[in-house]
Specification:
10-stranded antiparallel beta sheet, 2 domains, single chain, Phosphorylase Kinase, domain 1, alpha+beta, globular, 12 strands, two-stranded parallel ribbon, 187 residues
Length: 187
């Protein structure tokens, strides 16, 4: 009996992961303006994000934001999962980008008051990509490389580094992550 429950539980987890993965919508919400070696300069469109700042760990952030998009909101509406997930390096804030079909006026209101909804204005960002699972050591190395390349090219940047994570932790191969920072960019 216990073995049957364990097998069923494993099947449910696999089905759940498949469901989450199939719901994920990758979309391009930026335009690549320039490429400098392994650095991209991007122009981002305005976007709406839902964010949560955890006092203890980012796993808590994910489950709280996931509850919001799975229907724990004013309309009990399921909101499509988008990619990437944004992690703020300084504040332990995690953000989900809302699908393009939403405006601030028709986006369901979170029932959890700890979730904030923000509109991010159009902006220019510098980006460096890397693979594998992300961790602080990799992130700091990539930030250092990104800073160095921006300084070499006289591009003014701000101190708002974020990590973009594109896949679920269950995907092992071909993982994509990015470090991104706001820049002052004139064509």
């Amino acid at each position: 009996m216990q073995r049957c429950v364990l097998v069923l539980s494993l099947k449910m987890k696999i089905l759940f992961l498949f469901f989450i993965t199939s719901m994920c919508t990758n979309f391009q919400f930026y335009e690549t303006i320039k490429v400098i070696e392994n650095i991209e300069i991007r122009k981002y469109d305005e976007q709406i994000i839902a964010s949560h700042i955890s006092k203890d760990n980012q796993n808590n952030n994910f489950s709280i934001l996931a509850n919001y998009i799975f229907g724990n909101n004013s309309k009990s509406e399921t909101i499509g999962m988008t990619s990437p997930v944004i992690l703020d390096k300084k504040t332990n804030k995690m953000s989900f980008i809302m699908p393009e079909r939403y405006l601030i006026s028709n986006l369901p209101i979170p029932t959890n008051k700890e979730i904030s909804i923000e509109v991010c204005k159009k902006s220019y960002k510098a980006v460096i990509k890397y693979g594998g699972y992300t961790n602080s050591k990799k992130e700091n190395k990539m930030i250092k490389t990104l800073k160095s390349k921006l300084e070499e090219n006289n591009i003014i940047f701000f101190d708002d580094f974020e990590v973009l994570v594109y896949q679920s932790p269950y995907k092992i191969l071909n993982r994509k992550n990015e470090i991104i920072v706001s820049i002052n960019y004139d064509n």
